[in-house]
Design a protein that fits this description.
RecF-like; eight-stranded antiparallel beta sheet; about 450 residues; P-loop_NTPase; six-stranded mixed beta sheet; binds magnesium ion; 18 strands; binds adenosine-5'-triphosphate; alpha+beta; single chain
């Protein structure tokens, strides 16, 4: 039996499997013969597929989305995104979130929440000529050469994915004429798209999957607002779709922790095991207790002591099955409750809970984690982030020179400084050697 995909992982970095590229086999054999050898055994089990899902992103590609006319971002284990206000850091972050929504079945509502596809399209001309960039020619409307599409895609070391969205043909039959349509989706083998490496191809309402040398029609009627991930969840029939969907669903975003007076993190919360901190931090006490019981409690206590010398935390179990947090500090006669903590202290504890999660995701995205932290706490935060890179790929958007400098000490740090050129987000100095190879399937 010849496998179409056989992935071997080194166990040296526990929790962050790395594909043994030598083991990736060509794709032109039968789907029924697919197997994964992740733990040294040949196996069809879901666990092995889920382990396979923990694969690192190697590139992100965005076209025609807000300030991003066309950007190909190389990614490494630790990615630090910086740039002045308005250069497009949040646009990049939002693009990644839209990709995450695709696997959750929510890309169309997510675009609607952003104001609709028309407002998310790049607002400039289709191309910016050299003369426009040099100010020799005015930026003006030109006749479009290509149909207007917003495209998002990413490459991993094994499979890659791209989605292309556009507006529907105007019709008086529906009031949903502004709903974006998924025009094309494609999953391919390896990092660079070639027709021969394509494994699953969705064009309009039709999805086809490669089966040996043939293409098999999987669906002819997929709705324009459904992604192929909504339709293809069979780990044996279409392992690549299953694996990518699980990869994307595993991404974790921390954008804004609430630390106001009424923030849920300050109050007693349900006492249930919480290996993943909620994105607004509402289950902080339970998440910390979960780390203490099944996670890396030594690092947790060290991180708190490093940030606040002599301080420690304790989780109190109340009679009504709720947990609350107590914070003991040098010089005080009694511990402080969650409600009494400063914004910065609470926020730091939230980062401790998020970054020391006992269930690390394949990708963790942190948007401006330095917010409301005193600069003296930033080395402690940087240590936590660097610790998290042992188990997860990290994407950190930051404005803080001190945090950036500390993260750049990491040998695998990929610092991406964004700039704006004629309204578009660019990575200055990117050339043919530093730009990841990328081809959109619909070009
Ligand atoms: N449809 C669009 N077309 C072109 N540019 C757009 C579009 N929508 C938003 N922008 C531009 O994107 C920029 C905002 O980008 P973004 O919010 O990502 O910046 P940022 O780097 O996160 O800034 P900050 O540091 O202030 O948060 C604005 O300058 C705005 O002009
Ligand atoms: Mg921003």
């Amino acid at each position: 039996m010849t496998p179409i995909i056989s992935v071997g992982y080194s166990s040296e970095r526990q929790g962050k499997p790395r594909p043994n590229t030598a083991a990736v086999k060509p794709s032109n054999t039968s789907k029924a013969e697919t197997y994964f050898t992740l733990c040294g055994i040949t196996c069809y089990c879901e666990l092995c597929f889920l382990k396979a899902a923990a694969i690192m992103l190697t590139a992100l590609s965005i076209n025609n989305y807000r300030s991003i006319l066309d950007l190909k971002v190389p990614l490494g284990p630790l990615n630090v995104i910086t740039g002045e206000n308005g250069t497009g850091k949040s646009n990049l972050y939002k693009a990644l979130r839209l990709l995450a929504e695709t696997a959750q079945g929510g890309v169309v509502p997510a675009i609607a929440k952003e104001g609709g596809l028309d407002s998310t399209f790049w607002a400039g001309p289709e191309t910016l000529s050299r003369a426009m960039k040099q100010g020799e020619q005015a930026v003006e409307y030109t006749v479009r050469q290509r149909t207007k599409r917003m495209k998002l895609g990413f490459a991993t070391e094994q499979f890659s994915y791209a989605i292309s969205l556009g507006l529907p043909v105007p019709s008086s039959q529906t009031m949903f004429g502004q709903d974006p349509e998924i025009k094309r989706e494609c999953i391919w083998n390896g990092q660079v798209y070639r027709p021969s490496s394509s494994l699953i191809d969705r064009k309009g309402a039709m999805i086809k999957a490669r089966s040996g040398r043939q293409w098999q029609v999987i669906s002819q009627h997929i709705a324009s607002y459904h992604s192929l991930f909504d339709q293809m969840a069979d780990p044996v029939a279409t392992p690549e779709a299953f694996q990518l969907r699980e990869t994307i669903r595993g991404w974790r975003f921390y954008d804004h922790f609430r630390t106001d007076r009424d923030a849920p993190a300050r109050q007693a919360q349900l006492a249930t095991r919480t290996p993943v901190l909620h994105h607004d931090g509402r289950d902080l006490a339970a998440a910390l207790q979960t780390i203490i019981e099944i996670g890396d409690k030594e690092t947790l206590f060290k991180a708190i002591d490093y940030a606040f010398p002599g301080a420690s935390i304790r989780i109190i179990h109340h009679a009504d099955s709720r947990f609350s947090l107590e914070f003991s500090q040098q010089g005080l006669l009694r511990p402080l409750t969650g409600a009494e903590l400063s914004d910065g202290t609470l926020r730091f504890l939230l980062w401790v809970a998020a970054l020391l999660t006992p269930r690390p995701p394949s990708l963790m995205v942190l948007n401006e984690p330095e917010t409301s932290l005193h600069p003296d706490l930033l080395p402690a935060l940087a240590r936590l982030i660097l610790h998290a890179t042992k188990h997860s790929q990290l994407w950190v958007v930051s404005h803080s020179p001190r945090l950036i400098a500390a993260l750049e000490q990491h040998p695998d740090c990929n610092a991406i400084k964004l700039e704006k050129e004629m309204g578009q987000t660019v990575i200055p100095g990117q050339d043919i050697l530093t730009t990841p190879s990328w081809h959109w399937p619909d070009e």
